[in-house]
């Protein structure tokens, strides 16, 4: 189902009749403001999401460092005192 020029003209006519010619510029201005606010909020959410992902990557790298230093290979070796006295 396509919307042709006749249907678009009818929709515009109905809008003009409902809101009046004086209210249309005010309506367009408020729609523009709303769109700017919406865009800024979307960009802010993207920035928060990106920073959260970066913090997650930093936390993951710290966890990898902890895993490395806590691994059994990196732990000090315990020796038996009786073994150290033998010559």
UniProtKB/TrEMBL annotation:
Keywords, sorted A to Z: Cell membrane, Membrane, Protein transport, Translocation, Transmembrane, Transmembrane helix, Transport
GO biological process: protein transport by the Tat complex
GO molecular function per UniProt: protein transmembrane transporter activity
One of the record's GO cellular component terms: TAT protein transport complex
Protein transport listed as a keyword: yes
Skewed-composition ranges (Polar residues): 72-87
A Pfam short name: TatA_B_E
Alphabetized InterPro entries for the sequence: TatA/B/E, TatA/E
Membrane-related topology note: Single-pass membrane protein
Region (Disordered): 44-87
Cellular location(s): Cell membrane
Gene3D superfamilies the record matches: 1.20.5.3310
Domain of life: Bacteria
Quaternary organization: The Tat system comprises two distinct complexes: a TatABC complex, containing multiple copies of TatA, TatB and TatC subunits, and a separate TatA complex, containing only TatA subunits. Substrates initially bind to the TatABC complex, which probably triggers association of the separate TatA complex to form the active translocon.
Function: Part of the twin-arginine translocation (Tat) system that transports large folded proteins containing a characteristic twin-arginine motif in their signal peptide across membranes. TatA could form the protein-conducting channel of the Tat system.
Family affiliation: Belongs to the TatA/E family.
UniProt protein name: Sec-independent protein translocase protein TatA
Gene name of the encoded protein: tatA
